[in-house]
Recover the amino acids of this structure.
């Protein structure tokens, strides 16, 4: 192979497996995609848009599962172990993707693949065995019905290698529960939007991989220098000590002048009670002292936000496994299970074993508790099950029912929007979803939270444009004025970052869309970026790193354009399904029902204002080049980004703005 033909950073191969035809093929990674789409998430979105008909049902053979590893995956870049799974969601019935860490993605790159496309569906359970050039479709009937932990153990034993990396579904995916995940390394999840059910619909139990190849780097010495620079930025960042404990530590941020904890996370964030009186029991400090045994890290990651946990007391004593993040704690507060630190690891272990999303398990349960409180849901509806705040045993029972689609669990397994529609209109009013995707953060806290989650192409999502700093904007005092001034320049916001103001929200969201798209396309972890840290990694840090790895020069403006392409491809698939501006709005209750809490000694009752949100959304559309009346990108914007084919598709479907 000549120097010009070599791939740097990229493995250079797309692996395609048709489960219907039992056919395995390999294709070269198109070089013209490198500059235009980079790789990872954006290339996964392009393949999905080009190959999956919008009208294809999520659980049909026509839908595809695309696993994507960017050009930095498996290299020395910090946190370079990320994988993006792209498919159509059975929860939202539209575009969806999920980004996951662990070791699996790096192993796939070392085996020689940038992307794995799984299409069709097998008649019987199978798993894929990828051993560098050797790719096999193997029988998995003996694995069907087992948990993810049992599957992981069995495959490693069967293949005689404990270092093999395994991604698999559990009983939730097998039973096509829309709460199902694709679990990597027993604990890392391609979570949200029921993507594990799509894998299960193809009768694919697992993908096991062993990779022994290296990755060629265009300029090795320069690349090592750039990597060291980023490691230094991460390790010396003012937020590093906190975030290296894991995102659970975020909830322990000190709020001067307040009681120990008053964040409005209680009881699905709709109940009349919001203050967590027993917060200290489930605080990061208590979890770290009692539950966590040691830190764990994904591939080449300095953050080491993972942990090994052991339940040392109570009815689940002796259970152990990889630990958990902030959303476990948040979901416990939504269910008002805040008085038992040992419930957190138990709930986490159960979800991982079942291949069940921790959010998709808990949020319908919390929603059911709310509906019981309001008299909208009764034991007659649930088959005799009573939903009560704080009921641990019933919560664990319901999680299993959701995974296996048993009894009322079948209703809950499709997420709160579809669950509410089966119960009735009074229930749907309270569902905390956008486009069918359930939100974790409360929309009423800031307009940036609302906007970022509302315009996400996969439904409400805190990883598609949300800024950590807006989540804690109520405590804006913990950010110095000088730093807020710096952020205003970085975000190119005409307005300063001030408490409860909406004018900066569109600019923060757009910057974070560009940043998150870049890290997800490259395959590095967002926790090492400005998503979690003050100064690392920013967009300005990436061009030199990319060129050193791939030999391809990039500017910040070109990275921003790649981010715009990714978002437009994702949203355009949804536009072809009829989604538009009406789907970029939060639920009605966020405008009507106050979120009551206390901060810095001041009592708050927050609601969103429809006019202000409309102004915020319109400004976002304007700066992104979307039509302000529909939210659909204009032909001018599409042609500027080289997406003429999408412009033609939108015009053909009658949704392209005139």
């Amino acid at each position: 192979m000549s120097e010009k033909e070599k791939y740097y950073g990229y493995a250079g191969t797309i692996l395609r497996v048709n489960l219907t035809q039992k056919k395995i093929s390999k294709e070269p990674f198109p070089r013209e995609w490198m500059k235009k789409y980079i790789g990872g998430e954006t290339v996964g979105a392009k393949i999905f848009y080009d190959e999956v008909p919008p009208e294809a049902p999520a659980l049909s053979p026509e839908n595809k599962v695309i696993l994507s590893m960017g050009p930095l995956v498996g290299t020395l870049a910090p946190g370079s172990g990320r994988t993006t799974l792209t498919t159509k969601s059975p929860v939202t019935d539209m575009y969806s993707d999920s980004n996951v860490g662990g070791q699996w993605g790096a192993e796939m790159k070392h085996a020689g693949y940038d992307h794995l496309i799984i299409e069709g569906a097998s008649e019987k359970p199978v798993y894929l065995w990828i051993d560098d050039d050797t790719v096999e479709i193997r029988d998995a009937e003996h694995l069907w019905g087992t948990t993810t932990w049992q599957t992981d153990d069995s495959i490693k034993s069967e293949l005689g290698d404990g270092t093999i990396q395994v991604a698999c579904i559990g009983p939730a995916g097998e039973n096509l529960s829309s709460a199902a995940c694709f679990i990597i390394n027993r604990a890392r999840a391609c979570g949200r939007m029921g993507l594990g059910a799509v894998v299960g619909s193809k009768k694919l139990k697992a993908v096991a991989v062993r990779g022994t190849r290296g990755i060629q780097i265009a300029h090795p010495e320069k690349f090592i220098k750039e990597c060291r620079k980023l490691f230094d930025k991460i390790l010396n960042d003012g937020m590093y000590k906190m975030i290296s404990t894991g995102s659970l530590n975020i909830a322990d941020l000190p709020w001067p002048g307040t009681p120990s904890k008053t964040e409005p996370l209680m009881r699905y964030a709709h109940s009349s009670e919001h203050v967590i009186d027993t917060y200290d029991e489930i605080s990061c400090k208590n979890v770290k002292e009692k539950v966590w045994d040691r830190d764990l890290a994904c591939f080449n990651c300095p953050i080491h936000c993972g942990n090994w946990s052991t339940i040392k007391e109570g009815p689940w004593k002796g259970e152990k496994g990889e630990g958990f993040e902030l959303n476990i704690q948040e979901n416990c507060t939504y269910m008002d299970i805040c008085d038992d630190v040992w419930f957190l690891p138990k709930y986490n272990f159960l979800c991982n074993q079942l291949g069940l999303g921790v959010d998709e398990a808990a949020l319908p349960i919390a929603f059911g508790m709310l509906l019981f409180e309001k008299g909208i849901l009764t034991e007659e509806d649930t088959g005799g099950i009573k939903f009560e705040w704080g009921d641990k045993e019933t919560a664990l029972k319901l999680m299993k029912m959701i995974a296996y689609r048993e009894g009322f669990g079948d209703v809950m397994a499709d997420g709160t929007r579809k669950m509410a529609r089966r119960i009735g209109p009074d229930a749907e009013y309270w569902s905390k979803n956008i486009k069918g995707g359930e939100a974790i953060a409360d929309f009423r806290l800031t307009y940036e939270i609302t906007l970022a989650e509302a315009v996400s192409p996969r439904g409400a999502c805190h990883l598609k444009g949300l800024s950590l700093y807006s989540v804690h904007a109520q405590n804006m005092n913990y950010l110095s004025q000088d730093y807020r001034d710096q952020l205003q320049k970085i975000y190119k916001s005409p307005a300063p970052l001030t408490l409860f103001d909406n004018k900066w929200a569109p600019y923060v969201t757009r910057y974070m869309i560009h940043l998150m798209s870049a890290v997800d396309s490259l395959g590095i972890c967002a926790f090492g970026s400005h998503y979690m840290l003050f100064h690392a990694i920013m967009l300005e840090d990436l061009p030199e790193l990319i060129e050193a790895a791939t030999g391809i020069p990039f500017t910040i403006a070109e990275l921003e354009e790649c981010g715009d392409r990714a978002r437009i491809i994702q949203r355009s698939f949804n536009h072809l399904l009829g989604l538009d501006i009406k789907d970029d709005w939060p639920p009605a209750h966020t405008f009507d029902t106050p979120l009551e809490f206390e901060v810095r000694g001041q009592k708050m009752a927050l609601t969103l204002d429809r006019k202000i949100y409309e102004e915020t959304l319109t400004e976002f559309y304007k700066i992104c080049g979307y039509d302000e009346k529909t939210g659909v990108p204009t032909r001018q914007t599409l042609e500027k980004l080289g997406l003429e084919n999408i412009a033609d598709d939108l015009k053909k479907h009658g949704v392209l703005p005139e």
Observations:
- The domain at 447-523+555-652 is CATH 1.10.599.10 (Aldehyde Ferredoxin Oxidoreductase Protein, subunit A; domain 3).
- The chain has 28 helices and 19 strands.
